[in-house]
Amino acid sequence: MGAFNTFAAINIKSMNLFNKQILGLVLAMLVAASVTAQIPEKLGQVSGSFQFDGQYYQPDSKLGITDSTIAGNTTRMNAFGNIIYTHGNFSAGVRYEAYLPPMAGYDNQLEGHGFANRWARYNAGIADITVGNFYEQFGSGMIFRSYEEWTLGYDNSVDGIRVVLTPVKGVTIKGIWGTQRYYWEKFEKNSRGVIKGGDIDLFINDLFSNLENAKTKITLGGGFVSRYQADLDPLYKLPENVAAWSGRFNLSNGGFFWQTEYAQKINDPNAINNFIYKNGQGLFSSVSYSKKGFGFSVNGKWIDNMGFKSDRTTTGQPLDINFLPPNTKTHSYSLPAMYPYATQPNGEAALQATLNYHLPKKSKLGGKYGMGIELNFSHIRSIKKTLSSDATTMGESGTLGYDSKLLSIGDEIYFRDLGLEIEKKISPKLRFILSADWLKYNMDVIEGHPGEPTVSAFVWVSDFTLRMGDKHSLRWELSQLLTKQDQGNWIASTLEYNFAPTWFLAIMDQYNYVNKDGEISYTTTENETHTSGFDKLHYPTISAGYTKGTTRVLLSYGRQREGILCVGGVCRAVPSANGIKLTITSSF
């Protein structure tokens, strides 16, 4: 296909993915791995992990990528290395990162290299103390969660101190204090907020001896987080201390599990909510049950004005203090994942239900080997808002913005996904997965594209795997997305050969054939009809991978389509690209 230009045409000299810094990092990891084997056990242990992602970009006129678009950055790379030392109750580690420059789609503020994290920890049983960078979560994360997601270029680690106390059996107390990471910028006074907080878990069955053997397990918990940021705003008088608190309840009995958490946050005028003074609140509840061959779960979430960052003026990914789960299915296939949902912190009401059932072997529908069925439903809407008494327009800056009642539901649909998946083993060598999803995706709200139509799409996937002996297998995937909005129809296919446990080779193509006329017609919210033409494009990719022990090497070449990548409701834009990508991961 046209996208596969001859590899010989690529200037090998320009593919200098390993510069001095990365070469040094690789050598350091190799030395650390070899040294580990030489250290006597009584002196402690050294472990670590490493990942390198490098890409060579080349022009592609069909994608609108020219030499001027690439602007000389034909090679880009992201890499990290973790080294951890452990000796008894003591452990310490460093994390070195390099973005030289960051790969397309990652924030340019990541460019640079150095030690992003360093920490030391001592766990004495009753007290577990960490100084330096750490990750932590209170409850479901509605008031506090710090974590790292490499695929998004996301890291909101806290640099400070964390203390975890277990004074008696059944009681866990956590305390945190510090500042969050903001790319490579060092913390300076008033540059961003200081966060501090505490959390407690009470395991009721451990606290009372007569309940230790009870089948019903109960846990109560609660947390408090405060952010301090000086008020330097010339227009508004802003609260310098913003507090959030939550209470939670978990109950389990056999295969039954129920968890609920309610959170509140005081008024926090910020760039996300257009600097309104309304308090925020959220409620999350989940019920699930499972036994052999059957399981279901129902999750509900209602949030209002719960955006919470270390810097009130920041939008986008960085400096999130809390985490708001998306309540949607995470799709593993490319076309169903084309329209992922991004959590709306200013207000959403969400419901998700999943049912799993395995038809028994030798039953009428299950056949010789049985059959697995999964039914999933996600539905997310706006919350009901009314104009507050001090505002002239909804969400007016410097006012309460609007009024809302807990669990109120609005009329606007943000996202909906109804999906069915069937997994069936036909013979000892052949099995398949068939799935279908009916999607509704509000581009105006989720992607911030006013006037764009809501996407209604149907996606089907077929996935067949044929085993050829103990080590060889062949997988073929075919899928199609049908819609009259956005970029129109797509079809995708993947052929993958595996030689376990070492090699795999895959060829994939995604084809945006739009529709039979090569154009899309849609009506905007202002009842204006628009017609847009699209080029019918192929996005072919060929990939090869090699695995040896804990080391994996993946090389791919081809086109990358523009889109949105989301992990856990946090998203980043992925631009169109064409070129070669190399990924190396290893641990020791």
Polypeptide structure, described:
The protein is mainly beta and 588 residues long. It is built from four helices and 30 strands. The protein has helices spanning 20-38, 67-70, 204-207, 443-446; strands at residues 45-57, 75-87, 90-99, 112-123, 127-134, 148-149, 154-155, 158-165, 171-180, 194-203, 216-228, 241-253, 256-265, 280-291, 294-304, 348-359, 371-381, 413-425, 430-441, 455-468, 472-483, 489-499, 503-514, 519-523, 529-533, 537-548, 551-560, 563-567, 570-574, 577-587. β12 and β13 form a beta hairpin. The protein is globular, with a radius of gyration of 26 Å. The model is unreliable at 1-18 (pLDDT under 50).
What's the arrangement of secondary structure elements?
Blueprint: H1 20-38, E1 45-57, H2 67-70, E2 75-87, E3 90-99, E4 112-123, E5 127-134, E6 148-149, E7 154-155, E8 158-165, E9 171-180, E10 194-203, H3 204-207, E11 216-228, E12 241-253, E13 256-265, E14 280-291, E15 294-304, E16 348-359, E17 371-381, E18 413-425, E19 430-441, H4 443-446, E20 455-468, E21 472-483, E22 489-499, E23 503-514, E24 519-523, E25 529-533, E26 537-548, E27 551-560, E28 563-567, E29 570-574, E30 577-587
Antiparallel strand pairs: 1-2, 1-30, 2-3, 3-4, 4-5, 5-8, 6-7, 8-9, 9-10, 10-11, 11-12, 12-13, 13-14, 14-15, 15-16, 16-17, 17-18, 18-19, 19-20, 20-21, 21-22, 22-23, 23-26, 24-25, 26-27, 27-30, 28-29
Which structural category do the helix and sheet elements fall into?
A: mainly beta
Put simply, the count of helices is 4
For the termini, the CA-CA separation is 40 Å
> What's the total number of strands?
30
Low-confidence stretches: 1-18
The Cα radius of gyration reads 26 Å
